[in-house]
Amino acid sequence: MKVRANLVLAATAVGSGIFVLLGYFIDHEVILTLRLILMRWSVLLAAVALFLGLFNLLTVHWSKVSEQEKGWPYSAVLILAFLVTLILGLWFGPDNQTLLMLFNYIQLPVEASLMALLTISLTVAGFRLVSRRRDPFSLIFVVVVMLVLLGTGPWLVASDSDAYILLGQLRNWVAQVWASGGARGILLGVALGAILTGLRVLLAVDRPYGD
Amino acid sequence: MLGSIDIVGLLVLLLFLGLLLGFAAVGRNWPAVFRPVPGFEELGTAIERAVEAGERVHLSLGTGSVIGSDSAPALAGLAMLSRVAAVTTMSDKPVVVTAGDGAMAMLAQETLRSAYQRAKASERYRPTSGRMLGPTPFSYVASLPILIATEDVSVHILAGSFGAEGALAADFGERQQAFVIAGTDDAQSQALLYATAEYPMIGEEIFAGGAYLNVGPLHRASLRAQDAVRMLIVALILIGTVLHALGVSL
Amino acid sequence: MAEVRCPMCSKPNPEEAEVCGICGARLKPLIIDQPPQEQPPDKSEERRPEQGVEQEEGLDWLGRIRAEAESEAPKEEIEPEETADEAVSPDWLGRLREVDTTEDEGPPDGEVPDWLSAFSEDVGEVGEPEAAEPGWLERIREIKATKAAEGEEEAEPVDDWLARLREEQELIPEDLGADEIIPEELPLPAETLAEEEVEEHVISPIEPMDLSLEPSEIAPSEAMADKEAPPEPRDILPDLTEAAPPVTPSEVELPSEVVGEAEEAAERVDEFETPIEDELPHVPALILDEGEETIGEQPSGIDLDSIELPGWLSELRETAPPEEVPAEDTSLDLAPATLPSWLEAMRPIATFRSAVEIESVDEQVVESAGPLAGLQGVLMAEPVVAMPRAATVGAARLEVTERQYAQAELLHRMVEEEERERPAAAAHRPRVPYLRWAIGFLLVIAVALPTILSFRVGEGFPLPSYMPRDLESLFKLVEGISLERPVLAVFDYTPGYAGELNAVAGPLLEHIMLRGLRVVTVSTRPTGPLLAEGLLSRVGVNGEGYVHLGYLSGGPIAVQLFAAAPRETISRGFLLPGDMESQSGWQSPILEGVSQLSDFGLVVVITAGTDSARTWVEQAYPWRGETPLVMVLSVGTEPMIRPYYEALEPQVDGILTGLPAAVNYEQYLGRSGNAIARWNAFGTGMLTIELILLAGVIYGAALWLLRPRAVETRSERDG
Lengths: 211, 250, 719
Fold this sequence. Notes:
The complex is a heterotrimer of chains A (211), B (250) and C (719). With 211 residues, chain A is an all-alpha fold. Chain A has 6 helices and no strands. In chain A, helix 1 crosses helix 2 (29-66), helix 2 (29-66) crosses helix 3 and helix 5 crosses helix 6. The two termini of chain A are 13 Å apart. The mean pLDDT of chain A is 88. By secondary structure, chain C is mainly α.
């Protein structure tokens, strides 16, 4: 019985993937219609999955609070904030000024602070990079970073000098040629990996939906 | 009536399929030899150490969603998860998986359940082992320090789609002196991870995780197929460059 | 002190011990054929060196006497029968024949075997140093002298004693059976007797005992243990050959040449018990069982006084010190000191039967067990071998070395620790991240200081004067958009990037709105519409001229669907004006006449992610038509999107990347906006980061340069 259920799941996943994939190569009305339907269903399922994910989030933190596990006060704050936002959103609607205030004065500053924290973390990481990883690539990495920073940011002095202009052009050359070419190569490799990963799912080799 | 058919696209698709199945067929007689990746080589030791020390392994599937191109690295992360979960099933603190998307968290739960079933330890499975930390990237990352600290995480695996917040996630692991191996599909994020993670996975190394962790023969075959097509693309680019330099227009 | 473990009971014994003090087993093997001089030195002899010396002297004197006698009498060498028995005959007898006659030392006083002392009341004290020449020796010499003077043949004394022997032999009962424990061969002085005479004197063979037996099987091994023991002259022959009451030793005068044989015979006879006391003179056993009479005591039924002994022997008995039995060796009949080592080795084990009994046929027990079941006359097997016995405690005891003991203790401790409950380890105190704090403080100061000090325009960092060519084309592009067609602005970034992208996208949106173009916003992120409202409310004119379509869920799929059929993908709006609350955003006059993507005048995608930008570029391209696409990007995204802009058939028509480009745009626009306001903070922050990175490179280089030298110096110092 269990094996039969797994087979049904696998068949559903494989069939859906094949039809959506074929819809990109074969311009046939039935296939295109089926593809469109499946894609819309996937959007709906993604939204439902978001809801389930939020439910899972609540469950985890609720169990932490109820069992007084380590760090349970943070879980309590999360549950409280979640409930308040949910209630306000359900009560006033998502485009209410109240929620706008919550967003503009809580979420926006918090996430902006996290981005600032990222800046500090990256600076610290850059400072330690050469001392922690003593290889040529780390040195090249830091040198290129400094080059881009010098070519991007303003100079306190001699901002009109030829050196500044030269450095700016050098920075553009590094960013638009070398970095772009390398990024393209990475993109190609990633695309190849993504294709093979998708094919493994289509062949039911990888079954993230369960065996 | 059948409309236009993208023959080239279909041929490319068939090429990939043929290479995958072909390498899988000859894999037994012609075993694959891959270059050493320091992160994967150290990962096994780090997981063993964590299991012995009673510490936890954390695997992050990133902030990407199931639908879209950012699901590919997360699927690769799920393949790694099946292997990691098999190793940590009987540990005092089994692996915990987090994601920034609800659907991805559910897939993680199913992968964990399958791993426990294979290990004949279904009773040890907990649905909360796979969880969503936050719906947005930075809210996901903001929850990581608490998770790492409270769950005694000593191995921090980032295998999924990350933006700039991935660097922050890796940095949180480094601060806890955990073993950090991180990989994503975004080149910009890879640059940030190179600076912050102990063992960054550059390029498409994240998609090689299944082959290096011996998830299955088809994973090794898919990596060999990637290498083969990559060589083909390099050859085509070189040929096209030479032809263009010679003034031959295609 | 080194210990030797008994092979039988595994009890420790002193190294020098010959037998086990617990079970009596031999600790040192007996060696029969080995010549006495080849045997390892007996430590018991070392303890009694004086006694050993005296023992040697005792044998030597006998040999010398015999040699003297031989030199006077014609030597008739009779080849002894080469029998197996002769082969095992002790060599000491032969050596006795070779004794230097020049020595004139006599037997040590007091060192008289116990068996001999039974016939003498005055046995010399054991261990007594050399005493004065006894009278018997003098008498022997007198006899020699007398003989020499008289010129008597040596055969005469031989004839005398031989005649006596013949007489006595006639008195031997005929019913002496095979169980007579009489040596098969009596090593008579072959040089003095004719072969036939020797044969006559050969006593009937003993059944079943055989002289070829191992010495260990012979009970009275003490008699053979010490070859140098003073062979107390004793008239054995008369004891063997006659059933008559024993003759006192004093009455028996034996010539010197037969003393040795008599001695040996006496020793051998003494090895066996004589059950028939009535018929044969009882020779007391050398090793007695408990309760038996000691050798020292006069055996019952034997009248020692009736034994005819030579005069010298009787004198020896008188003058010999009283027998002294070692107190610690009460179980032994002979004082160990008097016996040579090889003879000592032949001492039987206590568990053995003290004497091998040759039982009569009727009395012989039929063996009932083992491979010899059913046979009679089977020698009793050693109890240790035949009879099962439980292993003693000593045998089961493990020999544990110190190292093993330490390891066992360690294992025991480890097991105990597993059971012990350990208190929870103290929480690991995280180390203070001083470097992180310092760098964070520097960056905050660097960014906050210009803002606090309120630099005016032109102060601080100079504005860029270099205008990139990309900016000029973008400016012209915006200037060329028709006012009748709205502009679609996609806000695909998270609130974390709002600080940068709001500053970068601000001048462009301001330019658009200043021209009077209407803006329609959409986002594939839930927070996108909120960000759009925040930015447009600042740059807009009186908060008008824009409408939000809201959140487009579904990711890339939703983008493709929106590009194909916008009105079907999003039905509602976000933050619609008051009069449009219950309506759809598509009902706004701004979107009048817009049904597909190509109806928009411009598509502006504001994003910080490469995937989002590529998605819009790739998914919307088939449905965009002639509508230009402009990308407003974070600096890190530019390398990935610029190829779309610089391609031969570009899919991106305009690109605006980073704060410097935004400053340039504001300069081009002639307005001072958020970009210019952040220029000084941007500059100080960048400068600070550059200096920190430079310091990190210098620090890393210094570590790299210094560390190998420190290692080399240390290695040189050690070397």
